[in-house]
Every structure is written in C-alpha cells, then in structure tokens.
Amino acid sequence: MSRRKLLALASPVALAVGLTGCAAVGGGNIPSANTPITQNEAQQGREYHSQILQEFGGAMQGNTAGYVRDVGQRIAVQSGLANSQSAFTVSLLNSSVNNAFATTGGYVYTTRQLVALMDNEAELAAVLGHEVGHVAARHAQRRQQAQQQNTLLGAAGAILSGILLGDSQLGSTLGRAALQGSQLLTLSFSRDQEREADVLGVNYLSSAGYDPLAMSTVLESLARQSALDAQLQGRDNASLPEWASTHPDPASRVRDAATLAAGKTGATLNRDVFLRNIDGLTYGDDPEQGVIEGRQFIHPDLRFAFTAPQGFYLVNGAQQVTINGQSGQAELRVAQASGSLTQFVSSAFQSLSGQGQALNPQIQRTTVNGLPAAYGTARASTSNGQVDVTVFAYEMDAGQYYYYQAIAPAGRSGVFTPMFQSFRRISSTEAAQVVPRVIDVVTVQRGDTVSSLSRRMAYSNGQEARFRVLNSIDSNEGLRAGQQVKLVVRGR
C-alpha cells in the first residue's frame, strides 16, 4: 500500500485492454510479429504508462534502472517493431512482486523483485524479450477481442497477467468471487499467447547473442520461487493445476523453453556485470509502501499495523493490502471521504452490490485500540454458494478512513474478527525501526558454506531455502571459493 493516500486507477477496463502479460510454446505463424509500431499504438501506450507506474510503485531511477532499460532496449530492437532502441520505453518498477508485462506501443516493465531473482543479464533479456514478444504479436489487441465477449474478465481478471503470477489482486473481493466462472472461458486463449511470446523471446535472445537457454533457467527460478512462497505462506496445495490456471504449469514451460533453445546460437550471460548492477537493490517490501513481516503488516509512513488471521497470508499492493486464506479473502484500503463512519460503510456496501443483489446490513459503531470504527456484515449469493461480506472501517484522522472488505463462506465471517481487532496506530519509535531489505552481492570465501552464508539472510525462517532459490543452487549443490552469490540483508 503506497504512502499516497488515494490512488485512483482510472478506467481499469481500458487499462486491461492495453496490458499484456506473460506465459509457453507453440509457435507456427504468429500474426503481426514483424509489423512496426503504429502511431495509434504508441499513443495508447503513452496513455496507459502513467497509470501503470502509479499502480506498481512508480519507476525506479539510478544505475540499476538505467541498466535494465539498456538491456531491454537492446533486446527489443531485435523484434523489428522499430529500428531505434529509443522507440521502446523500459521501466524498472518499485514493486515487491515477481512480475513483468508490457503494453501496446513498445512499453515494457519488470519489477525489481523479479530482477533480483535473476542470475545473469541473459535472464533479464529473456524476460524482457518475452514481453516484447507480446507486443510484437499484438496480444493486447487479441485480448481486447476476447474481452469484448467477456466484459467481466476484462474488468478485473485481465488487468494484470504476469510472467508467472496470474492473479493481479485487483478488483473487489466480491468481484473476484463472481469472476471465477467467467475466467475459465478464455484460459486456452491466454496460454496460447504466452506460448507465442516464449517462441519470440527465445528468437530475440539468440539474435542478440545471448544464451537462448536463459529463458528456461529464469522460468525454473520463477517456478522454484513460487513453490517456496507457497510453502512459507502455508499454502502448499493452493496452486491450481495447469488446465485450471491462467498460465501453463511452470515445469512444462521450463521444458518447452529448453526445447526452443536447442540448436540456436548465442552464449553471452554477463553474470558479473549483472550482479554488479543489482548490488544494493531493494528486496521485498519498500517501507514507504509498508512491509510484511510474517502475518503482520506495518506501515511506518502511514503509522498503522495489523495482523492477519492464523493460516492467512498477505500480499502488498499499491492500492491495497490483500489477505488470502482457504477460509476467506479480504483487502485493506484507504480513502478520503466526507460524512460519518456509518455513512462511509454504507456507501462501501453500495459499491459492492451488484448482479441484482442489494447489500444493506445493519451498521454498528465501536472503538478498536482507541480508534473510532464502524462495521457491518451482509449475506450474498455467488455461483459458489452463499457468502458473508464484511466492511470494517476506522477513522484515523478527520475524513480519512482505513477499511477492510472481507468475504467468507456464510456463517464464517468471524475468522476475520482477530484481524479487525488488531488494527492500531504505531508510535514514531516503532516506525523508525522498520528498515528495508537489500541485495548484497558477496564473494564466497574459503570455508564458507551454504549453511553459514544462509544464516546472514535477514529472515527468521526459511533462510537456507531462500538462499538456494535466490542463487539457483540445487539442494545437493555446494559453493566454491571465489563464487559470487546474493544475500538479502537489512539496509540502513
């Protein structure tokens, strides 16, 4: 959640039309893959650009951002979309999710978190080349045609489709529940687009002189990171099978990308250059956007904290913090509004009402940790059965409301009560103790082991597993003196 109090993503449906994500293999003839960018496409990309930067923490500046831009422009020009590298706008986003995407008109994006997971420059070029492949194949336009037939998907589910993570966490909780059935209508279409982008991305790698196998290795790292995240968050069984996911199974993508690389030329990795350019990069949450520590979310700038229920995990976004679990979902947002707390909660329910359902619960006032609060719960029907929808709001300052929107199976909304009661202001002393984590590139010394270096990772759990995934080191693999590896340490 950004320290900017109100973040309005204007016209989310229009943005969905322009944003293409990522995914795995097929090929054949890819329509429009060599057609230059048109003036209309460039104009559309410019219109989406500011909205995307606002939603994903803004564009980073400095040496790392410049390095990512240069690599992205070099790989993008291989597409034939434009002869000049300057025709492509490549942005490093200040976001803690592993993601990359592109918009029409040559706008390409990757998050700092995804860059930190990579091992070399070829992998960076692979991810960005994959995104350029989406632009070259006009996937945004083809998605628009599908969305015109399925407007529900266009409004929420397709706003963001990342290189591995298909859930954008955007749209209301109730809206996501209603979308579950409609999303299945376009799954095969989305997977086909991703396969085409992989084909093009591998071709771009080879023509630029990079090792084409880098597409496979970065996808393998993503798959490992995704599995580790699920394990650490206690959701080992939460991932969907390939046939029910917006993206192909990561393991199949790794195999297919390796097959595509076979027989192609190119050997450049530039590992040392890459590591030098990401040393010191922020890793995980930026304190200016709030940080997640286990089940606790704490925002030092906005001066609040809360704790998710047992068995739930947190996802931090620019506009909201999402709370996910097997027994429900919720999100915390901030708004400026006139009127009383009761009126604000009532208006929130009106916004959630839809599909012929009016949500008009009895709204109650209370106090939580010294903060004025109001809440209500309403019963609603979805395609998956009845659910309870709760809005719980707090007034931090005059006219400034922090509020949860939560959904749970009918009769089970109480699972969120401990979280509602945990919301609190934090002191300036507690806020000052929140510092970022950063990437620290170190050289392995004689006597260093995976175990000894892992203990320097700035985490209280999963240190060795995190170290191995971050450095693509297999479970039975050791270290050698002189080798460079990445650590995640506390910054200043």
Notes on the protein architecture:
- It is a single chain.
- It contains 17 helices and 18 strands.
- Residues 4-29, 149-189 and 238-247 have low confidence and may be disordered.
- A hairpin with a 4-residue loop joins strand 9 (313-316) and strand 10 (321-325).
- Helix 5 (121-136) packs across helix 10 (214-232), helix 7 packs across helix 8 (173-183) and helix 10 packs antiparallel against helix 11.
- It has a seven-stranded antiparallel sheet. The chain has a four-stranded mixed sheet with strand order 1-3-4-2, sandwiched between helices. Strands 6-7-8-16 form a four-stranded antiparallel sheet.
- It folds into three domains: 12-283, no CATH class; 287-432, Protein Transport Mog1p, Chain A; 437-490, Roll (Membrane-bound Lytic Murein Transglycosylase D, Chain A).
- The two termini are 21 Å apart.
- It has helices at 12-18, 39-55, 63-76, 112-117, 121-136, 139-149, 151-157, 173-183, 187-207, 214-232, 250-261, 271-278, 341-352, 417-422, 428-432, 450-454, 463-470; strands at 19-20, 89-93, 100-103, 107-111, 282-283, 291-293, 296-299, 304-307, 313-316, 321-325, 328-336, 364-368, 371-382, 385-397, 400-409, 424-425, 437-443, 484-490.
- The protein is 38% helix and 21% strand.
- With 492 residues, the protein is an alpha+beta fold.
